[in-house]
Amino acid sequence: MLQTKKISSVELTQTFLGRIAQHNPNINAYIALDEAKSLAQAKAADALIAAGKAEPLTGIPIAQKDIFCAKDWPTTCGSKMLANFVAPYDAHVITQFDAVGAVNLGKTNMDEFAMGSSNETSYFGGVKNPWDTERVPGGSSGGSAAAVAARLCAAATGTDTGGSIRQPASLCGFTGLKPTYGVVSRYGMIAFASSLDQAGPMAKSAEDCALMMNVMAGFDERDSTSLNREKEDYTRDLAKPLQGLRVGLPKEFFAEGLDAGVGKVIDEAIAAYKKLGAEIVEISLPNTGLSIPVYYVLAPAEASSNLSRYDGVRYGHRTAEYSDLMDMYCKSRAEGFGAEVKRRILIGTYVLSAGYYDAYYLKAQQIRRLIAEDFVEAFKQCDVIMGPAAPSTAFKAGEKVDDPVAMYLQDIYTISTNLAGLPGMSVPAGFSNGLPVGLQIIGNYFDEARMLNVAHQYQQVTDWHLQMPQGIE
Amino acid sequence: MEWEVVIGLETHTQLKTNTKIFSGASTAFGAEPNTQACEVSIALPGVLPVLNREAVNCAIKFGLAVNAEIAPRSVFARKNYFYPDLPKGYQISQYELPVVGKGAVTIQVPAVGKHPAYEKVVNITRAHLEEDAGKSVHGAVEGMSGIDLNRAGTPLLEIVTEPDMRSAAEAVAYAKKLHELVQWIGICDGNMQEGSFRCDVNVSVRKKGSDTLGTRREIKNLNSFKFMQQAIEYETRWQIETLEDGGTIQQATVLFNPDTGETRAMRSKEEANDYRYFPDPDLLPLTISEEDKARVKAQMPELPEAMKARFEAEFGLTSYDAATLTASRELADFFVQTVHAGAEAKPAANWVMGAVSAKLNAEEKSLTDSPVNPNQLASLLKRIADNTISNNAAKQVFEALWNGEGDVDAIIAAKGLKQESDSGAIEAIIDEVLKANPAMVEEFKAGKEKAFNALVGQAMKASKGKANPAQVNEILKKKLS
């Protein structure tokens, strides 16, 4: 639309800024907005378009999760600890979007340091699910999710350590992709659990996600875990028919704990895939049940170390009064971090302690390998794995805040792919009691283009991804 | 009761790379505080480490130099603790799988009193790569502490020995040897004042003959050999006295105070950190291939041991002389250049180890600052060899060379030091001397050998010191026979 000059980037950006002004006070999707900066980028994009130098995302307003450092933008990671932190440099993801002339529309709300599944741990307040504002949008990329669902941006970025793109995509009814670990550089993305964190796109459709991936993916020498692979076009296979596609259904994903309404929607989606020519294979991922305990050893272990830099010495929150160095550390961190972050720092510190390391951390690493091997076996029998992205639809705010384990179970179907480093996505597949349900598609390593194809073909015969919540038109 | 001290060393060697171990920031010493602290050095949110392969090459060089196993796969680990000069709240180091494994160095322990010098092998347990911390700066602003992160992320190779040393002298000999070796292979500038080479010394004592180790105390951050000697001697005495008084040694970290010459515990084991080491998920395991090793090996200079053997074989030097000359790269180079400039090897060795070293020591200069260069020394030695000047005169010429009084031949001419080698002229002088000293001649003939030396002396005096002493000897012998 931009390139056919029906509308300029400035007009489009202004439209979104207008919608944000109208709806954000209620939804609370954005932490930081900077109209002048966004419009300046839009103007520059219009010049590129006029000069015929436009790329698919030139001039498109993108919401950036507040986990990405963006030069001269507040970058808080949803924490009081960084409430006043203004990043002096750009994350790789930000640089990539800048390079194609996309517009940074603002920084979106998130669970503090990406730790949470409901966006309720944010220092900047919870985010409302546009489908039902009494309910949560999921997390940790809750702000990006609500922004995409409420059409407060064209698309958004998210990060996914245990499900933080896919679970909110499921709860808010749009398409979200967590790529293979190492496909998108983590440089400038504030670390939660380094071996699991991966950035990805959150957008209306699989096609939009593919265009986003073309910008976000690619080797970056500043991230040692970034994979040096040839640049690929993620849109290349979108149109391929699905005839003969082998879809694996892990029996563990349809067992106890799955909401019946959600299960029904997933069954219908599978039926639709059969119609598209897919054949269904029953598979097993026997160690799925161990993924949550393993994750809650490894992720907090890495987090406890990653978050040590927030000590009040060089930047970030420092307590007003302190008697000595130890007092300054203790008070600054006690005041700067919220309860969930503290809980995970404590767990992580404990499992790495002398005398406990072997029993927890090492054991968890061993099981992590078993979980990855489950998938290796599974992909011998199928091309993609399908199942629910989350066990339930969006729950009410406050419902699970006092029960961390219930909250952790939100990621039961997503965590194992992070542990294995595999790509996974959530695709809108229908509604249960008026709330969106996401179908999860898990692919083999580097199979993002195929997954996007699988999702796109489904979106050609369904319109779940085009549905909009009421009251935000 | 006889006690034995058991010593092991951990040495932090700052590697001579242009940039830091995990970022592109400069490692140059002495810049304004925090001007060499990039976003990685400051540990801003979101930054990531990228390994500097040059630091790895330094580790490989060291491994090759001490005949160590070089791990094909090693792992970087996080050592977690809070300190203001540690920006990430953890130090990236290596823990379970270090880059360099078991190796050994041979040390020369100098003679002390009646005990002769001896050689000893000190085993290297491991050497691992890690990053340095920053520095706390106290008092730059009244009542405040500042942090300078220029040094944060500077590459270090921590070299750990087995508890093989049995005296302060052995520990110092090892430290000196290691200090020379890391400079020799070009991985460290060796500057101890700037902290490029810092030693932690583990000291314990036990009854002689016992094969179990006593409880050790670790003396931290010794940055001079003199302090190391003093600290170990004090610590050893203190431990022995404590045990003899019925006390026990608690494992502890201690600091040496150069003003009092004493060591004092800074923290006990109970207060020690639990560092919660775990593999750094931001870095891939470090892999080193046979090709990597071969490439580094090709750039390595000849090692001291090999050079020592070559000096013995090629120049006929004694083992002791060859060891002395190869104790430092500069000394060895100076010697070789002197020989290449035309000097004979043995006199060159003697002069480099003798007059040159003595002068440098006296003036506390290093070889690089020597006013006499190898070419000048070679010219001087050639004038001795071709009998132009005597050994005695050569000392005067050397003194003048040192003081910058011109080149060798000009100095000889100016000072009139050219020796008389014309046998006719010398014969004439001797005839005069014999005629003037009949009593001495008589004494000699009566069997007093001393009288011969007196006659040589008279002849040298008569020639104003310029006669070739060997010729004087020879002619005088002939005349008196």
Polypeptide structure, described:
The complex is a heterodimer of chains A (473) and B (481). Chain A has 473 residues and is an alpha/beta fold. Chain A has helices spanning 9-27, 35-50, 92-99, 142-149, 166-172, 206-216, 260-275, 291-306, 325-336, 339-352, 358-378, 404-408, 415-420, 448-461, and strands at residues 30-32, 61-65, 103-108, 155-159, 175-178, 199-203, 246-250, 279-283, 384-388, 424-432, 435-443. Chain B has helices spanning 39-42, 53-65, 168-184, 225-244, 290-298, 304-315, 319-325, 329-340, 345-363, 374-385, 391-402, 408-415, 423-436, 438-445, 450-462, 469-480; strands at residues 3-14, 73-74, 76-80, 90-94, 103-109, 118-131, 135-138, 145-148, 155-161, 197-207, 217-222, 252-257, 262-268, 278-279, 286-287. In chain B, the strands form 4 sheets. Chain B has an 8-stranded mixed sheet with strand order 5-6-9-1-10-11-12-13. A 3-stranded antiparallel sheet of chain B has the order 4-3-14, with no helix packed on it. The radius of gyration of chain B is 30 Å and the shape is elongated. Chain B starts with a strand and ends with a helix. At the A-B interface, helix 8 of A face loops of B.
Q: Which pair of chains has the greatest number of interface residues, and how are they split between the two chains?
A: A-B, 43 and 28 residues
- The quaternary structure here is heterodimer
- Mass-distribution shape of chain A: globular
Q: Which strand order does the major sheet of chain B show?
A: 5-6-9-1-10-11-12-13
What helical percentage do the residues of chain B reach? 25-40%
- Return residue spans of chain A where pLDDT drops below 50 for at least 5 consecutive residues: none
C-alpha Rg of chain B, in Å?
30 Å
The largest sheet of chain A is:
11 strands, mixed
Q: What structural class should be given to the helix and strand makeup of chain A?
A: alpha/beta
Report the mean per-residue pLDDT of chain A as an integer: 96
**DSSP E strands of chain A, number:** 11
Count up the helices of chain B.
16
- In N-to-C order, the SSE pattern of chain A is HEHEHEHEHEEHEHEHHHHEHHEEH
Helix content of chain A: 25-40%
Uncertain regions spanning at least 5 consecutive residues of chain B: none
